[in-house]
Amino acid sequence: MAPIAIDPEPVAAAPAHPLKAAAAPKQDLSKLAANPLARTYRGNKAGTIHMEGIPEFADPLEKREWVKVQLAAAFQYWGKLGYGEGLSGHITCRDPVWPDHYWMNPIGVHFSSVKVSNLCLVTPEGYVHDTIGAQLAINHAGFIIHSAIHKARPEVQAIGHCHSLHGKAWSVFGRPIDILTQDACLYYDNLAVYKNFGGIVLAPEEGKNIAEALGPKSMAAILQNHGLLTLGSTIGECAYYFSNLDRLCKVQLMVEAAAASGIKKVVIDDEDAAFTAATLQNPHNVYANARVELDLIIEERGHILLK
Length: 307
What we know:
Elements: H1 60-80, E1 90-94, E2 102-104, E3 120-122, E4 128-133, H2 140-152, E5 158-162, H3 165-171, E6 191-194, H4 204-214, E7 220-223, E8 227-232, H5 235-259, H6 270-280, H7 283-305
Parallel strand pairs: 6-7
Antiparallel strand pairs: 1-2, 1-5, 2-3, 3-4, 5-8, 7-8
C-alpha cells in the first residue's frame, strides 16, 4: 500500500500579548488628604473633630517652658524604656528665645530623675549658662556631637543619642535596618550609617564626621559599634524616632536569627515603602506618635517633672 501523507496536528498560534501575572494593586497618594496627619484619623461628619499636630507659640518664652517640659518628659520616657547607661546619653533642644543656645540634661543624673529644674542651658561656646538653667555639669561628648549637628543642620531643633541595648547590638554590623514592617518605613531613605568607630567622642573631629554621615536630610543614624542617634523638629519627634528605631533593631536581630535557620524574610518593596513613608515621616505624624507616650509621662509624673 502506498504511504499516505498525514498532516501534523495543528499548532495553536501564540497570543500576540502573552498574559502576565496581575500586579498587586497599589494605593495612590493623589486620592488622599493633602495633609499627612489628616490621613491617619477620622472625625465627625461636620468636620469639627481634629487631631492636633505640633503646637504653635506666639511667645518664645511660653514656648521655652513647653520645650523644657517636653524635654524632661522625653528623658523620663527613656528612663522608663531602660535606656540609662551610667554617664552616657543626651538629648538637646534649641532654646526658642536664643536659638544658638540649647537645653540639655546634666551628666550623672539618671534619665528617670531629669526634671525641668535640673535642665542645663548651654551657650554657643559649649558652656553651662551662668544664670539661666541648672548650674550642673554636662556631658562633654554630648556637646561635641550635638553642637556639630546643630551647626550643620540649622533646621533641626532636637538631637538625641544614648546606648540603648538593641541599637548598640545591631550597630556592630555597620548596616541599616531592612524595611521589614510598616513602622520601618519611617526610616525609608531616611537613615544614615556612620561606618566608623573612632573611640569615645572627646574631640570635635568626630562630631563633624557624624554630622557629615547624616547628610542634609536623614533624621536618624546608626553609629557603628556605638549606638543610635536621631533628630527632630520637636523633642517628641526626636524621642520617637529613637525609641522606634531601637525596637526595630530588636526586630531585625530576631528576623536575622530566624532567617539563619532557613526561613525566608520578605522586605517591603520600594514603591510601597515610599508610599508609606510619605505619611509616616511627616513631622506632625511623628510628633503625634510621640505625644501618646509623653502625655502619659506628664500625666503619671507631672508632679516630678515640673519641680
